[in-house]
């Protein structure tokens, strides 16, 4: 737990104090966010606000991960043996960094062209598929072996699983390695686009991501406390996952980094995360669902992202089939803007929706544990 707390604190402080530096740097570089002319009129006042702020909390997460591992050197050897840097960290941080890199290219092109249209849809889609495929293969084809203090092999789990999962793996839903890689790609695409579509108002996506990441930190730490690979855990009921403390440490670090960034990103935002941050967070959240074996729980945990994504899907289907729009504008948050709601009211109420989804998901996760041990 100490390592997780250290990672959270380091990530928060780095993000809190380095974001103002990023604001100055991106402002001097004239890396302002282009605003769509067809968007809500009130958004035109945000034109020129620096973007690509996601770079800050992505770097803060990586640095905090290292700091968390340095904190582990103060723990007893038995605990250190279970949480040495592993392939799990490579997959999770890789998904965050390289998904963020796809977003960075998009942001860079927007700034360079001085237009809201950056990387074209095919290019962005290809980047998401490539990142998902590469780290999906690593997660499925490269088991990371763990040894206890006596040198005995205790776990040889891969980061991902060849079965679909809800609270844990569902043995009846075996899909094989190729099928699992395809599922991982789909989850990466869904999560990255979901967070990206939610990132339309000051602090909305950042705050919702904090809740989801904090929930994954709790889930992973609970799995660590009831880990099948832990030689000190003697109960029959346990979780078969790969490096849960690693997962908790990274999730906590990312949540802390987002809280520090939110200080500057809340209304009125002085910097936007841009596609750099949105795709980076989406990639990490997808990795969390895969590594904690809770893929089918993700739509509940990230309920706000699902609702906002579905509003876009519904709008497109309705307009193309009937020529009519269901919403004044999509994504959904802009519908309420045009209905006269203030930006702060929309953000706070949507955060409440995000919190409800997280609470339901955590309740389902814990109730499954209670049902199994009673």
UniProtKB/TrEMBL annotation:
Keyword set includes Cell membrane: yes
InterPro entries tied to this protein: Glycosyl_transferase_4, PNAcMuramoyl-5peptid_Trfase, PNAcMuramoyl-5peptid_Trfase_CS
E.C. designation(s): 2.7.8.13
PROSITE patterns in UniProt: MRAY_1, MRAY_2
Subcellular location: Cell membrane; Membrane
Positions that bind Mg(2+): 196, 275
Catalysed reactions listed for this entry: UDP-N-acetyl-alpha-D-muramoyl-L-alanyl-gamma-D-glutamyl-meso-2,6-diaminopimeloyl-D-alanyl-D-alanine + di-trans,octa-cis-undecaprenyl phosphate = di-trans,octa-cis-undecaprenyl diphospho-N-acetyl-alpha-D-muramoyl-L-alanyl-D-glutamyl-meso-2,6-diaminopimeloyl-D-alanyl-D-alanine + UMP
Membrane-topology annotation of the record: Multi-pass membrane protein
UniProt pathway annotation: Cell wall biogenesis; peptidoglycan biosynthesis
GO molecular function, one term: phospho-N-acetylmuramoyl-pentapeptide-transferase activity
GO cellular component: plasma membrane
Coiled-coil residues: none
GO BP of this protein: cell division; cell wall organization; peptidoglycan biosynthetic process; regulation of cell shape
Keyword set, alphabetical order: Cell cycle, Cell division, Cell membrane, Cell shape, Cell wall biogenesis/degradation, Magnesium, Membrane, Metal-binding, Peptidoglycan synthesis, Transferase, Transmembrane, Transmembrane helix
Main location per the UniProt record: membrane
Transmembrane segments annotated in the record for this chain: 6-27, 48-67, 87-105, 125-142, 178-197, 204-224, 244-264, 271-290, 296-319, 346-366
Family membership noted in the UniProt record: Belongs to the glycosyltransferase 4 family. MraY subfamily.
Annotated function: Catalyzes the initial step of the lipid cycle reactions in the biosynthesis of the cell wall peptidoglycan: transfers peptidoglycan precursor phospho-MurNAc-pentapeptide from UDP-MurNAc-pentapeptide onto the lipid carrier undecaprenyl phosphate, yielding undecaprenyl-pyrophosphoryl-MurNAc-pentapeptide, known as lipid I.
Name the UniProt record assigns to this protein: Phospho-N-acetylmuramoyl-pentapeptide-transferase
Source organism: Micromonospora globispora
Gene: mraY
């Amino acid at each position: 737990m100490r390592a997780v707390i250290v990672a959270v604190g380091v990530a928060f402080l780095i993000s809190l104090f380095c974001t103002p530096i990023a604001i100055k740097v991106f402002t001097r570089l004239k890396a302002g966010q282009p605003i769509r002319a067809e968007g809500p009129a009130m958004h035109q006042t945000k034109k020129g606000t620096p973007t690509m702020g996601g770079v800050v909390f992505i770097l803060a997460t990586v640095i905090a991960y290292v700091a968390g591992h340095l904190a582990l050197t103060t723990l007893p050897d038995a605990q250190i043996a279970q949480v040495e840097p592993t392939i799990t960290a490579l997959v999770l941080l890789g998904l965050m960094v390289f998904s963020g890199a796809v977003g960075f290219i998009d942001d860079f092109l927007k700034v360079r062209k001085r237009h809201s249209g950056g990387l074209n849809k095919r290019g962005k889609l290809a980047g998401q598929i490539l990142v998902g495929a590469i780290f999906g293969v690593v997660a499925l084809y490269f088991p990371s072996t763990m040894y206890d203090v006596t040198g005995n092999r205790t776990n040889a789990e891969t980061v991902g699983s060849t079965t679909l999962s809800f609270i844990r793996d569902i043995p009846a839903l075996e899909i094989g390695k190729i099928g699992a890689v395809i599922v991982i790609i789909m989850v990466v695409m869904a999560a990255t686009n979901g967070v990206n579509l939610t990132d339309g108002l000051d602090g909305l996506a950042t705050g919702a991501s904090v809740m989801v990441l904090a929930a994954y930190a709790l889930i992973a730490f609970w799995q660590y406390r009831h880990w099948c690979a832990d030689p000190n855990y003697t109960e029959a009921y346990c979780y078969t996952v790969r490096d849960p403390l690693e997962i908790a440490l990274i999730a906590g670090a990312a949540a802390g980094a987002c809280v520090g960034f939110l200080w500057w990103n809340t209304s009125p935002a002085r910097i936007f995360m841009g596609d750099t941050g949105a795709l980076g967070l989406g990639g990490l959240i997808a990795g969390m669902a895969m590594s904690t074996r809770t893929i089918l729980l993700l739509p509940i945990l990230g309920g706000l992202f699902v609702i906002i994504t579905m509003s876009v899907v519904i709008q497109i289907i309705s307009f193309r089939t009937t020529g009519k729009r269901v919403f004044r504008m999509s994504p959904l948050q802009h519908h309420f803007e045009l209905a006269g709601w203030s930006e702060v009211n929309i953000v706070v109420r949507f955060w409440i929706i995000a919190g409800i989804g997280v609470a339901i998901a955590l309740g389902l996760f814990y109730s499954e544990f209670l049902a199994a041990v009673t």
